[in-house]
Write a structure and sequence with these properties.
Length: 389
C-alpha cells in the first residue's frame, strides 16, 4: 500500500479530523462520518436483505446492482445526517477487501472518485480490521477506557470465522504519537463461516433468510440438549473451525426424522404471510422437534466458538477478549462467552448490534490509525476477494 505524508495544516486538528467511510463488501451499502476515530456523526446502512431473501442467500450480481443504486443516496444521507459537506471531510476511507469483488468495486470506485474530486486522501481498509475496530469504537463512543492488549478477537459473521491475536503499540511520528496495530491469525474456518451455517440451516428448515436472527429467537423455545450433536473436532490446528459437518448432521436428522413435509408446509405458510413473521407466527409454524433441533444446532455452534476463543486467549496470553461480526449479535453466544470468560478472569468486549453487523462506522474507526500514520492509496488501488490481515 503506498504511503503518503499527512498534512494537518489547513485541516481540522488531528483529533477533530472527520473521516467519511464507505463499505460495500457484501450485501449492505453503508457510509458513515466519524470524528477522531471515536465519535459517530452518522452511520447509514442500506440493507439488501429484501432483495436476497427469496434466494436464501446473497446473489453476487444482484448485490453489485443494488450497491450501484444505493451508493450515491447513502453517502449523501451520511453527509447530511453528520451535518457536513464533502469539503469539510478530511479523508475518505473505503473497504477494499475481502468480499465480493463486484460489490467492493462499487464502493471503491465511488470512494476513489470522491477522493480525486476533493483532493482528500484515500484510506484503504481491510473489512476484517473494521470488525475488530468496531469493538474499540463502541468503547470510545461511551467514553470508556480502551480494553487491555494483547487481545484475542473472534470475528464471526456470514463470510468469516477468524481468531486473531491483536497487539497495539504507540510510535512517534513527526512529533506525534500514533497507534500501530498488528494482527496474527490463530485459527479460521476450514469450510463454512458460522453465519453461513446459520443461514444454510435456516434455509434447510424453511425458516427464511437471514438465518441468524431467527434461530437466535427460536432457540430460546427449544431444548439445546435435545439433539446430541457431538463436539466439532478435526485434525491439525485445534483453533480452526468447521461447520459443514454440522450442517450435514442437521440435514441427516431432518431426513431420518421425516421432517421434509413439515418444512415444505412451513416454507409455503411463510411465503403466504402478508408481512414479516412475528414471534407468534414462528411458534405456530414450528413444532417442538424443530425448536429442539434449532436450539441444539445453535448450542453446537456456540460451544465451538466459545471453546476455541478461550483456548486461543489462554495460549496467546490475552488481556481481553473481543467478539465482533454479525454472529456476535447472537444472545446465546454473548452470554456463553461472557460466562466462560469471566470464570477465567477475562472480560469480553463486543459492540452493540449496529456496530456488530456490517457498517461503515467501523471502517472509519479502522481507518483512523492509518490516517494518522499517513497511509494512503491512489487511484490504482484494486479490490481483493481474499485479503489477509
Ligand atoms: O457481519 P455481517 O453483517 O456480514 C458479513 O460480513 O458476513 O454478518 C451477517 C451474518 C449472517 O450470516 C446472519 O445470519 C448472521 O450474521 N447473524 C446472526 C445474528 N444476526 C446476524 N447469527 C446469529 N445470531 C444472530 N442474532
Ligand atoms: Zn462483515
Amino acid at each position: 500500500m503506498p504511503a503518503g505524508s499527512i498534512q494537518f495544516e489547513g485541516m481540522a486538528g488531528e483529533h477533530d479530523a472527520r473521516i467519511l467511510a464507505i463499505e460495500s463488501s457484501c450485501d449492505e451499502t453503508a457510509a458513515a462520518v466519524v470524528v477522531g476515530g471515536r465519535r459517530i456523526l452518522s452511520n447509514v446502512v442500506l440493507s439488501q436483505i429484501p432483495v436476497h431473501r427469496i434466494y436464501g442467500g446473497v446473489v453476487p450480481e444482484l448485490a453489485s446492482r443494488e450497491h450501484l443504486r444505493g451508493i450515491v443516496p447513502v453517502v449523501r444521507q451520511a453527509l447530511e445526517q453528520a451535518g457536513v459537506t464533502l469539503e469539510q471531510i478530511d479523508a475518505v476511507a473505503v473497504t477494499y477487501g475481502p468480499g465480493l469483488v463486484g460489490a467492493l468495486l462499487v464502493g471503491l470506485t465511488y470512494a476513489k472518485t470522491l477522493s480525486l474530486a476533493t483532493g482528500k486522501p484515500l484510506v484503504p481498509v481491510n473489512h476484517l480490521e473494521g470488525h475488530i475496530h468496531a469493538v474499540l469504537l463502541e468503547e470510545r463512543m461511551h467514553e470508556r477506557e480502551d480494553p487491555p492488549f494483547p487481545a484475542v478477537v473472534l470475528v464471526v459473521s456470514g463470510g468469516h470465522t477468524h481468531l486473531y491475536r491483536v497487539e497495539r503499540r504507540s510510535e512517534e511520528k513527526d512529533g506525534r504519537s500514533i497507534d500501530r496495530y498488528s494482527y496474527t491469525t490463530l485459527g479460521h474456518t476450514r469450510d463454512d463461516a458460522a453465519g453461513e451455517a446459520y443461514d444454510k440451516v435456516a434455509k434447510l428448515l424453511g425458516l427464511g433468510y437471514p438465518g441468524g436472527p431467527v434461530i437466535d429467537r427460536l432457540a430460546t423455545l427449544g431444548n439445546e440438549r435435545g439433539v446430541p450433536f457431538g463436539p466439532i473436532r478435526m485434525k491439525g490446528n485445534p483453533l480452526d473451525f468447521s461447520y459443514s459437518g454440522l450442517k450435514t448432521a442437521v440435514l441427516r436428522y431432518v431426513q431420518t426424522h421425516n421432517m421434509e413435509e413439515r418444512i415444505a408446509a412451513r416454507r409455503k405458510a411463510l411465503a403466504e404471510l402478508p408481512g414479516r413473521p412475528t414471534m407468534e407466527d414462528w411458534q405456530r409454524l414450528c413444532d417442538q422437534e424443530t425448536l429442539d433441533l434449532v436450539a441444539s444446532f445453535q448450542y453446537a455452534v456456540v460451544h465451538s466458538l466459545v471453546e476455541r476463543t478461550l483456548a486461543a486467549a489462554e495460549s496467546a496470553g490475552a488481556e481481553s477478549i473481543f467478539i465482533s461480526g454479525g454472529v456476535a449479535a447472537n444472545r446465546r453466544l454473548r452470554r456463553g462467552m461472557e460466562e466462560a470468560a469471566a470464570e477465567r478472569g477475562w472480560k469480553v468486549y463486543a459492540p452493540a448490534l449496529p456496530l456488530c453487523t456490517d457498517n461503515a462506522a467501523m471502517i472509519a474507526a479502522a481507518a483512523w490509525p492509518h490516517f494518522t500514520a499517513g497511509e494512503f492509496a491512489g487511484a490504482e488501488l484494486p479490490a481483493y476477494a481474499q485479503l489477509p490481515l
